[in-house]
Every structure is written in structure tokens, then in C-alpha cells.
């Protein structure tokens, strides 16, 4: 402290300091003012500035540490997401392959079913054709038989006299009676 007061006393002994006034030497006054301000700041502000810088340094380090932790978590989540994506893509590919094979299998089943249905329809058509053919043949046979029977009856009626007609009726009645006794 003695040095500070000595410098003020020393300033009083300057030859130009004999009177009170403004110093126009800007360089000398700025250097003195700056050295006083810097000295006061260093002496009184050293602890405060040090504390502020330490706090700022700790906040920066904490922010960096937190950022690194978040980065690590983000990388971990990214790897999990990539693994999940690969798994989902594999499942999708497997599903696609299975679905395509299932579609092909269904397609083949449908084709086979259609062929079987067509074959059954062809069989039904043939059976219907044969049935209708047999029915037509039977109708023709019945018609021919009816016409032959009618022709025979007409021939018999024209050739038979009453006596021959009665004997034929009695013979047929006897024959039906014998058939009835056999069945009973």
C-alpha cells in the first residue's frame, strides 16, 4: 500500500503538476488510467473472476458429459432401431415369400378344382346324354310295342270269332289264376 501512496506523492512532485488542470498527453493519462483499472480489477476481481470461470468451465464440462451420454444413448437406440428394422425386413420378406407360395398353392388348388369341376360336368353331361338316349330308346320301344300290340289286337279282333275269343279269355283267366296260386 505504501507503493500506491508513494506513487501519488511522486506524482505531486512533477514539474508540470504544479497546478491543477487537464493533462493533454493522452498516451500518458490512458496508460495510467488503464494500469490503475487493471490493478484494481486484478486485486479485487481475481477471486470473483476465477469463480465465474470455474463455474462456466463446470457447466461446459457437464454439458459435454451430458451430450456424450445422450449421444451414446442415441447411438444405442439407433442400433436397436436398425436391428429392429432388419428383423422387420426379414419378417416382411419371409411373409412375402410365404404369401407368394400360398398364392401359388391356392392358384394350383383352384386350377385343379376347376379341372375336377369341368370333369364332373363332362361326366354329368355324358350321363344325361346316355339317360336321355335310353329314355328315347325306351319311348321308341314302348311306341313300337304299343303299335305292335294294337296291330295284333286288331288282327286278333278281325280273325277271332266269338267262340275263339271266349276260349282265349278263359285260357288267360286260368293262366292268371295259376300264377296267383303260385305266388300265394
TrEMBL record:
Keyword Phosphoprotein: no
Keyword hit for ATP-binding: no
Topology in the lipid bilayer: Single-pass membrane protein
One GO term describing the cellular component: chloroplast thylakoid membrane
Pfam family, one: ATP-synt_B
Annotated TM spans: 26-49
Record-linked InterPro entries: ATP_synth_b/b'su_bac/chlpt
Coiled-coil residue spans: 71-98
Location in the cell: Membrane; Plastid, Chloroplast thylakoid membrane
Keywords: ATP synthesis, CF(0), Chloroplast, Coiled coil, Hydrogen ion transport, Ion transport, Membrane, Plastid, Thylakoid, Transmembrane, Transmembrane helix, Transport
Family: Belongs to the ATPase B chain family.
Miscellaneous comment text of the record: In plastids the F-type ATPase is also known as CF(1)CF(0).
Function: Component of the F(0) channel, it forms part of the peripheral stalk, linking F(1) to F(0). F(1)F(0) ATP synthase produces ATP from ADP in the presence of a proton or sodium gradient. F-type ATPases consist of two structural domains, F(1) containing the extramembraneous catalytic core and F(0) containing the membrane proton channel, linked together by a central stalk and a peripheral stalk. During catalysis, ATP synthesis in the catalytic domain of F(1) is coupled via a rotary mechanism of the central stalk subunits to proton translocation.
Subunit structure: F-type ATPases have 2 components, F(1) - the catalytic core - and F(0) - the membrane proton channel. F(1) has five subunits: alpha(3), beta(3), gamma(1), delta(1), epsilon(1). F(0) has four main subunits: a(1), b(1), b'(1) and c(10-14). The alpha and beta chains form an alternating ring which encloses part of the gamma chain. F(1) is attached to F(0) by a central stalk formed by the gamma and epsilon chains, while a peripheral stalk is formed by the delta, b and b' chains.
Name of this protein: ATP synthase subunit b, chloroplastic
Organism: Rhipsalis teres
Amino acid at each position: 500500500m505504501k507503493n500506491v501512496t508513494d506513487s501519488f506523492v511522486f506524482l505531486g512532485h512533477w514539474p508540470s503538476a504544479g497546478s491543477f488542470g487537464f493533462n493533454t498527453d493522452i498516451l500518458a493519462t490512458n496508460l495510467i488510467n488503464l494500469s490503475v483499472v487493471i490493478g484494481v480489477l486484478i486485486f479485487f476481481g481475481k477471486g470473483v473472476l476465477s469463480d465465474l470461470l470455474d463455474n462456466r468451465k463446470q457447466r461446459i464440462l457437464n454439458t459435454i458429459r451430458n451430450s456424450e451420454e445422450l449421444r451414446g444413448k442415441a447411438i444405442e437406440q439407433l442400433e436397436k432401431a436398425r436391428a429392429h428394422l432388419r428383423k422387420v425386413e426379414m419378417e416382411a420378406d419371409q411373409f412375402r415369400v410365404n404369401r407368394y407360395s400360398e398364392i401359388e398353392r391356392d392358384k394350383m388348388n383352384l386350377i385343379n378344382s376347376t379341372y375336377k369341376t369341368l370333369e364332373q360336368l363332362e361326366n354329368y353331361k355324358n350321363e344325361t346324354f346316355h339317360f336321355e338316349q335310353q329314355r328315347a330308346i325306351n319311348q321308341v320301344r314302348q311306341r313300337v310295342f304299343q303299335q305292335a300290340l294294337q296291330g295284333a289286337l286288331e288282327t286278333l279282333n278281325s280273325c277271332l270269332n266269338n267262340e275263339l275269343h271266349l276260349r282265349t279269355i278263359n285260357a288267360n283267366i286260368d293262366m292268371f289264376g295259376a300264377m296267383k296260386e303260385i305266388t300265394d
